[in-house]
Write a structure and sequence with these properties.
44% helix, 12% strand, Rossmann fold
Length: 158
C-alpha cells in the first residue's frame, strides 16, 4: 500500500510523518510511505526543528527534500493523510482517480482532527506535533496492518 502524507510546504509535518511511519513499519514491504506539500518549494530541506525533534526520537529526516503534490504522484497512491481540512479538498481536486483522503488526526482519541503547523514555533511545539503524528500514524496504519494480518490468516485457513 502506498500512503502519502500531505501538508502545506513539505518541510515540517509531512516529513515528520513520513519519518515516523517509515520507522514504525521498517522492513514491512506492505507499506510504502511518502510525503509532499501542496505549495512545496522543490528540494527545500526539512525545518531545523523538525530534524532536531525527529533525531531526538532516533529518526533521521535530514535527507528529505520537499516536493509538490501532483496528479502524477497521486496516481500511484492508495491512501492520503492530510494535516488540515483544506488540504484534503486540494488533494481531491488534483487526484486523477477516486482516492481515499483523510485527516491525520480524525477519529484518534486525544488529538485534534487537524494537526497545526509548528513552523515558526519552538521545539516544544514541534515535540507536541511529533507526539500527535506518532499517535495518529499508529492508530490509522496499525489498523491497516491488523486488517492485512486478518486477511492473510483467513486466506490460509480456507
Amino acid at each position: 500500500m502506498n500512503v502519502l502524507f500531505v501538508c502545506y510546504g513539505n518541510i515540517c509535518r509531512s516529513p515528520m510523518a513520513e519519518g515516523i511511519a517509515g520507522a514504525m513499519f521498517m522492513g514491512d514491504d506492505f507499506l510504502h510511505v511518502e510525503s509532499a506539500g501542496l505549495h512545496a518549494v522543490p528540494d527545500n530541506a526539512p525545518s531545523e526543528n523538525a530534524v532536531t525533534v525527529c533525531l531526538k526520537h532516533g529518526i533521521d529526516i535530514r535527507r528529505h527534500r520537499a516536493r509538490a503534490v501532483t496528479p502524477i504522484l497521486l496516481s500511484r497512491i492508495d491512501l492520503v493523510f492530510c494535516m488540515e481540512r483544506y488540504q484534503c479538498l486540494d488533494v481531491l481536486a488534483n487526484a486523477p482517480h477516486l482516492l481515499p483522503v483523510r485527516l491525520i488526526g480524525e477519529d484518534v482519541p486525544g488529538i485534534p482532527d487537524e494537526i497545526p503547523d509548528p513552523y515558526g514555533h519552538g521545539l516544544p511545539t514541534y515535540e507536541r506535533t511529533f507526539q500527535s503524528l506518532t499517535r495518529a500514524i499508529a492508530f490509522h496504519l496499525g489498523h491497516l496492518r491488523e486488517r492485512r494480518e486478518y486477511d492473510r490468516k483467513a486466506k490460509t485457513s480456507g
